[in-house]
Amino acid sequence: MELKIDENSLTPIYVQIADAIEEDILNNKLSEENTCYSQLIIAKELKVNPATAAKGINLLVSREILEKQRGQAMTVTLGAKAKIIERKKQTDFSDKIDEIVRFAKRLELSESYVLDKISECYKEAR
Predict the structure, then answer these.
(1) What is the SS3 string spanning 91-125?
(2) Of 69, 3, 58, 68, which Cα lies nearest the Cα of 30?
(3) Of 15, 41, 81, 123, which sits most exposed with the smallest number of CB within 10 A?
């Protein structure tokens, strides 16, 4: 487990925990229908209150990314990765695109220039 939090961030720690778990799912460090990190392990590794870890886990339960099963560890739901991708497309990705477009307009860059640069970066990315 390599979850990391930034104590200086304005983002609440429980949200950072949820985001880190989602990143581990996207990066295939956690797989669907398998167990997730426990509240106590997260609290111990990150040196946070177990209630904070629980709040991060419960956020993912509400997003239907994790599910609680009585007497068993928290499990990554079937379809969790697709749900994360869809949510991030609708929020994070759209926000980043909006930011790029606003910045490009302030610099008076043409749409074709911006699209060419995005295409260039997309081809170079691994």
Answers:
(1) HHHHHHHHHHHHHHHHCCCCHHHHHHHHHHHHHHC
(2) 3
(3) 123
Half-sphere exposure of 28 (CA within 13 A, CB side): 0
Task: Looking at the structure, tell me whether residues 70 and 116 fall in a common domain.
Answer: no
Long-range CB contacts (< 8 A, 24+ apart) of 80-88?
80/25, 80/32, 81/25, 81/26, 81/32, 84/22, 84/25, 84/26, 85/26, 87/63
Question: Smallest Cα–Cα separation from 23: which of 45, 40, 2?
Answer: 2
Query: Digits of tens for pLDDT over the chain (126 positions)?
Result: 778 899 899 999 999 999 999 999 999 999 999 999 999 999 999 999 999 999 999 999 999 999 987 777 899 999 999 999 999 999 989 999 999 999 999 999 999 999 999 999 999 986
Domain assignment of residue 109, given as a range:
81-124
Q: Examine the domain organization and report whether 97 and 118 are in the same domain.
A: yes
